[in-house]
C-alpha cells in the first residue's frame, strides 16, 4: 500500500521497509524527542522513559516488514509508544514495590521531566513558570490513562482528534469527551494553585 498523500513520515517508513537504512535514521532523529517527552510525561520516571523510548524504535524497526501506511505514521508510532507505556503500568502493578506512586511524584517540588527554554526570562518569572509546570504535570499524572494520553497527544504533540482517536482505539466524539473531562479536571485541580499566584 502506498503512503498516504502528504505523509512524508509514512513515505520514510516505506523507504525503510524497502531497505533504506537512512530513512530509519531520519525517523529516529525527527521523533526521538517527541516520543521520549510523551513517554516521560506518561510514566514520570526518566530512566524508564529512556528505556521505553528506545524500545519504541526497536519495535518500529522490528515491525518494518509488516508496516502498511494505512494511517498517518504518527498515529502508528504513538500507538506503539502508548502500548509500551501500558505494559510498564501493568509491570508496576505486578511489582508493587516499584509502583506508579513510587516512581511518579505528585509533589509540586519534584523536578518535571522537561522544561521550556526560559533562558531569556527573569529569574522570578522562570521560578513561577517552573512551579506552574510542576503543578500541571502532577495534575496530568493523576488523570485516568485514556484522559492523560489524550491530553498529552493533543496538547504536547499536537495530534488532531482523528489521530488521537486511532491511538486510543475509540471514536472522535469519545476522544473529544475524554479531552473535555480531562480539561475540566485539570481546571479544578489547578484552580487553587492559580488563585494563589
Walk me through this protein's architecture.
The chain has helices at 8-17, 21-43, 46-62, 73-94, 100-103, 123-141, 145-156, 161-168, 172-196. It is mainly alpha-helical. The longest helix has 25 residues, at 172-196. It is globular and about 55 Å long. Mean pLDDT is 81; it is low at 97-121. It is built from nine helices and no strands.
The run of helices and strands is: HHHHHHHHH
Structural class, judged by helices and strands?
A: mainly alpha
CATH superfamily: RNA polymerase sigma factor, region 2, helix turn helix motif
Oligomer: single chain
Summed up:
The chain has helices at residues 8-17, 21-43, 46-62, 73-94, 100-103, 123-141, 145-156, 161-168, 172-196. The chain is an all-alpha fold. It is globular.
Essential attributes:
197 residues; mainly alpha; Rna Polymerase Sigma Factor, Chain: A; 9 helices; 0% strand
Secondary structure layout:
Elements: H1 8-17, H2 21-43, H3 46-62, H4 73-94, H5 100-103, H6 123-141, H7 145-156, H8 161-168, H9 172-196
Helix pairs in contact: 1-2, 2-3, 2-4, 2-7, 3-4, 4-8, 6-9, 7-8, 7-9, 8-9
Amino acid at each position: 500500500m502506498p503512503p498516504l498523500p502528504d505523509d512524508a513520515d509514512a513515505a520514510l517508513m516505506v523507504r525503510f521497509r524497502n531497505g533504506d537504512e537512512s530513512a530509519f535514521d531520519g525517523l529516529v532523529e525527527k521523533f526521538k524527542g517527541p516520543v521520549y517527552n510523551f513517554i516521560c510525561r506518561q510514566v514520570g520516571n526518566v530512566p524508564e522513559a529512556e528505556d521505553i523510548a528506545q524500545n519504541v524504535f526497536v519495535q518500529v524497526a522490528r515491525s518494518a516488514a509488516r508496516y502498511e501506511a494505512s494511517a498517518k505514521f504518527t498515529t502508528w508510532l504513538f500507538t506503539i509508544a502508548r502500548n509500551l507505556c501500558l505494559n510498564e503500568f501493568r509491570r508496576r502493578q505486578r511489582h508493587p514495590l516499584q509502583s506508579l506512586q513510587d516512581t511518579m511524584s505528585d509533589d509540586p517540588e519534584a523536578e518535571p521531566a522537561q522544561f521550556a527554554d526560559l533562558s531569556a526570562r527573569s529569574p522570578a518569572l522562570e521560578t513561577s513558570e517552573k512551579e506552574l509546570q510542576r503543578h500541571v504535570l502532577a495534575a496530568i499524572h493523576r488523570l485516568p490513562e485514556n484522559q492523560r494520553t489524550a491530553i498529552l497527544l493533543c496538547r504536547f504533540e499536537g495530534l488532531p482528534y482523528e489521530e488521537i482517536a486511532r491511538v486510543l482505539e475509540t471514536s472522535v466524539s469519545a476522544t473529544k469527551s475524554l479531552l473535555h473531562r480531562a480539561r475540566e479536571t485539570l481546571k479544578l485541580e489547578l484552580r487553587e494553585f492559580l488563585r494563589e499566584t
